[in-house]
Inverse folding.
């Protein structure tokens, strides 16, 4: 665990203990404590320089009033590499798939990729993109995933194009992810994937969806992942932790953006006492039976305390979790400053964990 990790000071421990579908019985917390006179933790110096040069938009919050315009801007401006781009001159095999979606839902688009020329079934990273469940796409995250992990660790990657809010509210996104995972596991042989070595993962909203997916597949008896990779995960709809107040108006994803996203996802169920953990994993009360977990967050970000609380709840449930709180890291810091030393350290830690999990589950070649 990184040295900045600390037990969160959240005011409602019962609500932060994660689990199964009956977990929503916990009542919503009162608004969390406001920041103290100490202010926010300082940003890493390299990150501070990068953010200062990124312009004002990087901290512009999402609000209900600007959400539609921000979504349109994201859809127009976010990269969406083609299959030819992703193949990188033949280094990777890439296919776009449409698979059956959840009951009464549309088909789900998946982007499947793997290093070219490697025989035999490969382990799989089943990945959910970030964007608050209101922006983002399955294609934009793949160049980095393929460069940093697929080629290095010889693993396949499937990226999920789940439906976005508010056009599709809960449970659309997590059900899309579940339907895709079930299909991939059932068609593992034709995809060249080892269905017994699947890691679910994601960043920000994608990290929250990965956590929800692990809970959902556990409770439905679906395909069981061997690990979950939760990067600055968006886990708690209540927006009431100490770090949420402490980083208000400061972090690149602050409590205003967070509340806007959760309201878009949950609609009339926002703040409901009986919200299931598949909507917001921090509402869960039982984290037993989950796979080894990597949890990562920055010390200077809104989601810090809910991520730390989730790791702690996994340990309390007898599970295995590796927690990193990167000193001076804001939300998504390695995206804003990929060459910063802190970003490089974080990427190396993720890669080590992935390698370790996949090595432990490796099957002997016949």
């Amino acid at each position: 665990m990184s040295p900045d990790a600390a037990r969160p000071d959240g005011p409602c421990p019962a609500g932060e203990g994660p689990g199964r579908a009956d977990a929503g019985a916990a009542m919503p917390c009162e608004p969390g404590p406001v920041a103290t006179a100490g202010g926010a933790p300082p940003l890493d110096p390299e990150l501070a320089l990068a953010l200062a040069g990124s312009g004002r938009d990087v901290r512009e919050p999402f609000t209900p009033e600007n959400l539609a315009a921000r979504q349109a801007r994201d859809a127009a401006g976010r990269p969406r590499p083609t299959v030819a781009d992703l193949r990188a001159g033949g280094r990777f095999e890439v296919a776009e798939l449409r698979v059956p979606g959840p009951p009464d839902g549309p088909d789900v688009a998946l982007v499947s990729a793997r290093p070219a020329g490697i025989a035999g079934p490969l382990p799989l990273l089943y990945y959910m993109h970030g964007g608050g469940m209101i922006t983002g796409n399955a294609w934009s995250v793949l160049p980095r995933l393929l460069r940093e992990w697929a080629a290095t660790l010889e693993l396949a990657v499937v990226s999920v194009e789940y439906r976005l809010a508010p056009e599709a509210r809960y449970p659309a996104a997590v059900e899309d992810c579940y339907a895709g995972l079930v299909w991939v596991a059932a068609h593992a042989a034709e995809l060249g994937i080892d269905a017994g070595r699947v890691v679910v993962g994601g960043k920000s909203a994608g990290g929250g969806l990965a956590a929800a997916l692990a809970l959902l597949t556990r409770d439905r008896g679906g395909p069981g992942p061997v690990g979950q990779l939760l990067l600055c995960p968006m886990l708690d709809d209540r927006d009431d932790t100490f770090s949420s107040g402490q980083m208000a108006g400061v972090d690149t994803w602050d409590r205003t953006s967070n509340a806007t996203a959760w309201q878009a996802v949950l609609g009339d169920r926002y703040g409901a006492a009986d919200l299931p953990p598949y909507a917001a994993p921090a509402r869960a009360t039982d984290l037993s039976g989950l796979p080894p977990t990597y949890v990562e967050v920055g010390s200077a970000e809104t989601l810090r305390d809910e991520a730390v609380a989730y790791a702690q709840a996994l340990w309390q449930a007898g599970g295995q979790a590796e927690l990193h709180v990167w000193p001076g890291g804001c939300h998504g810091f390695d995206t804003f400053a990929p060459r910063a030393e802190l970003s490089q350290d974080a990427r190396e830690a993720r890669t080590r964990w992935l390698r370790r999990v996949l090595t432990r589950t490796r099957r002997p070649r016949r």
